[in-house]
Amino acid sequence: MTFDVVTIFPAMIAQALAAGVLGRAIETGILDVKVHDLRDFAGDRHRIVDDVPYGGGPGMVLKAAPVFRALDAIEAARGATLRVVLTSPQGVRFAQAAARRLAACSGLVLLCGRYEGFDDRLRARIDEELSIGDYVLTGGELPALVILEAVGRLVPGVVGDQQSVAEESFSRGLLDFPHYTRPAEVVARQADGAGAEVLRVPDVLLSGNHAAIRRWRKREALVRTLARRPDLLAGATLDVEEREILRELEEEGTGASDGRD
Ligand code: SAM
Predict the structure, then answer these.
(1) Domain count of the chain?
(2) pLDDT of residue 261
(3) Are residues 186 and 134 in the same domain?
């Protein structure tokens, strides 16, 4: 899958993509990510890409024409029509379903705003506008990286174990079950200084009984989802065993709390 990121701070993107799972996927060619400096498409020798807002007021506005030129150049280089995504706090809230949908595209272009954002006429060339949450950041680089990472890791081959992607939070409308690793006991000092507590891994995970472990994980995922994000359950895809566990939990009245304060 190809990604083209358009930004006035290309180093922010390049540096973040140099390491980890995505870095490896880029190195091995599973993902093809190119970062474009918007100033290269400014059209003047001073490389100016922003100007004052019509009507007055504070802040600068990114011009539309340099982005149009960047999009023409990217589409010509890729030889394909690409899905153009504008990062914006005014966009549709980005979530796992959108990540799945975008991972099926052959190529994405991510546009990173700055200042007051882009000249609104840019909308003529965008396919969708995505927000990563109800807060305002100074630029679209972090949102573009969030989208790139969430989408990129769904591309087959990027994450080594596809089963872990299939089981993790939001993949089926459930939060993930809790994970533990060795040792089987860890000592935690209590916050109030009253002593130490030995924290044990749930016995079932040490039992070697794979059917019991599978059922326990399903139950824990449901308990967590009921306690933290009951809204997800309406759209969840549950198998027969999970539906049965959910009925049990509802009968027991479990799920209002999953052990968190
Ligand atoms: N004037 C804009 C407004 O109030 O809606 C805010 C512009 S913001 C300071 C500059 C850029 O940061 C935006 O163009 C966008 O690219 C990016 N940005 C900021 N917050 C974002 C969010 N929550 N989701 C996605 N992009 C965001």
Answers:
(1) 2
(2) 46
(3) no
